[in-house]
Amino acid sequence: MVKVVSFTFNAFQENTYVLYDETKECIIFDPGCSNAAEKQELVSFIEQNNLKPVRLINTHCHLDHILGNGFIANKYDLSLEIHKGELPVLAHAPRSAAMYGVAMEPSPEPTHFIEEGDVITFGKAQLIAILTPGHSPASLSFYCAQDNFVIAGDVLFHMSIGRTDLPGGDFNTLINSIKTKLFILPDETKVYPGHMQATTIGFEKENNPFL
Asked: What are 158-195's pLDDT values in tens digits?
């Protein structure tokens, strides 16, 4: 069984996720740790649970989701994995950091690109990559069928959706992604978003005012 642990980091209150199973291998999604205390919180959890980080993945490359990329890549000797369509967003991040007055350690360049339908493995677990653009040009969500959850980035939130006014965002594209890629998942699927609390597909179908 995959365990999903979230950490809320940085001034944007971004959710960083660590996923692991009984083998102790883990994936780190969207490390947003932006200062020494946040970095130590994440490392302490990994060490206390004897976890072995084996993959570093960004659902998308907006500033708040990549602030810890450099730290995690160097700490655990990991390569960054993203969708190729997020490269312009990654390249723009230092300018975004300057605009917001946020200190940013440079992110490594990705060495592997994830495509829709790719199977992401760690330990005994598997996740399926789903292309869900709209908030960003090529945001990815990751669905675990065996444990019925999805890591959704900033696509779908509790009673809300990702903003679409940033470069590469598009409202109609986002709505289409949610309805045709996420809402086809089982209603009981737990949604782990990039901000705020977790929700479920069924709850959002019934209650999300944007949908």
From this structure: 999 999 998 899 999 999 999 999 999 999 999 999 99
Its sign, for the CA torsion 5, 206, 59, 11, is negative
What domains sit in the chain, N to C, each tagged with a CATH number?
3-207 (3.60.15.10)
pLDDT digits (tens, 9 = 90+) for 57-87: 999 999 999 999 999 999 999 999 999 999 9
Q: Is the dihedral of CA 199, 202, 207, 209 positive or negative?
A: positive
The reported pTM is 0.97
As to burial, measured by CB atoms within 10 angstroms (0-12 exposed, 13-18 middle, 19+ buried), residue 141 is buried
The answer for residues whose C-beta is within 8 angstroms of residue 120's C-beta and 6 or more apart is: 27, 55, 57, 114, 126, 127, 128, 129, 142
